[in-house]
Amino acid sequence: MHVRHLAPLFVLTFAPPLLAAQTQTAQAPQASVGGIVFGQFLYQLNDSLGAGHQNQFSIQRAYVNVVGRFAGGIGTRVTFDIAPTGTGNQPVRLKYAFLTWTPTNSSLTYKFGMMQLPYVDWEETLWDYRMQGAVAVDRNGYISSADVGVGIDGRWNNEQVNAQFAVFNGEGYSGGTGDNRKDAGVRVSVRLSETNDASRVGGLRLTGYAGIGKATGGADRNRFLGVVSYKTQQITLAGEFVSTKDAAVTGSILSAFGVYRFSGSKAAAIGRVDVVDPDTDTPDNKLTRVIAGLSYQVQPNFRVLADADLLSFEGGATPLQDATRQRALLQVQFTF
Questions:
Q1: HEC profile for 203-254?
Q2: Which residue, among 286, 256, 254, 253, has the nearest Cα to 271 in the 3D structure?
Q3: CA separation (Å) from 35 to 49, 63, 113, 278?
Q4: The domain containing residue 257 runs over which residues?
């Protein structure tokens, strides 16, 4: 899960006075601290097994982010992930802790540590509504957002092409180191046509991802993914196909989503459909999630979203699943 749009809470700039006097042009180290919080009010649309329509306020996620910038193209980042467990506990986990190096005039950035993996952060940036929940490949446990390893990020011709490659443990940032096996993943995104959004996800784009590895114990863990997307400052449209393989089980995901930002307004409409087939050889086991809602950007650092999150089971839901699969949500995101 990626932390974006973090307005620094404070900036500490320090330099030994003698050194500063000797080298007026030297870049002083800098550190910035910020954070992002996702909170919500949830209302179960179905009667929860005779217990009434369950509802609660909760904090779904909180991140504290520390970024360092140093001379010579060196950067650091540490992110703490505070994730409530539902039992009243709120454990603090390490989400990111990595070093970056961008050589002077280079299009490449080298990374080491617990870092973003090549795909999830990219799709979250395109979708821009992590506050609603994780994207399909992350929500369903197929691709983690972070892990420990080494990687290279590249961008060329003002983001016409951007790419990421990484070799990592494979068990995710909260799954431990696993055994001696490693996974590798690469994402390449090409802008086929420009729009008024010049970011790394803007324009008409074709994006592909391939992840190959072995889970702890030696079972295959392969992911292949393709996305066609179109993004302007007003509209986001995307369609995605994912093929997965875990040991001898092959699965697939079809996902389509869109965002429309109303002209001259801080409001936007969002919609998303994710169809997950965990085993393509087994009939009647697809899960379909439909999300629709309206958001409003109250302030640059404060957004609200009212949405419905409806999950259906092709083969029928158990009584517990049926009681909790349809939800109405009022969600908030604020940064500091």
A1: EEEEEEEEEEEECCCCCEEEEEEEEEEEECCCEEEEEEEEEEEECCEEEEEE
A2: 256
A3: 38, 5, 20, 35
A4: 10-335
Query: What's this model's pTM, rounded to 2 decimal places?
Result: 0.89
Specify if 287 maps to a domain. Answer: yes
Residue 53 placed within a domain: yes
Say which residue the tokens 């996902």 belong to.
255
Q: Using the predicted structure, report yes or no on whether residue 22 has a pLDDT greater than 60.
A: no
Sign of CA dihedral 25, 157, 138, 54: positive
CB–CB of 183/157 below 8 Å? Answer: no
Q: What count of other Cβ atoms lies within 10 Å of the Cβ of residue 292?
A: 14
The answer to whether 28 and 13 are in contact (CB under 8 A) is: yes
Which one-letter DSSP state was computed for residue 20?
H
Taking 3-state DSSP, the helix, strand and coil percentages for the chain, each rounded to the nearest 5, stand at 10, 55, 35
* Residue/partner pairs of 50-54 with CB below 8 Å, 24 or more apart: 54/324
Count of domains forming the chain: 1
Task: Kindly report, residue by residue over 233-280, the tens digit of the pLDDT.
Answer: 999 999 999 999 999 999 999 999 999 999 999 999 999 999 999 999
Cα separation, 215 vs 236, in Å, equals 35
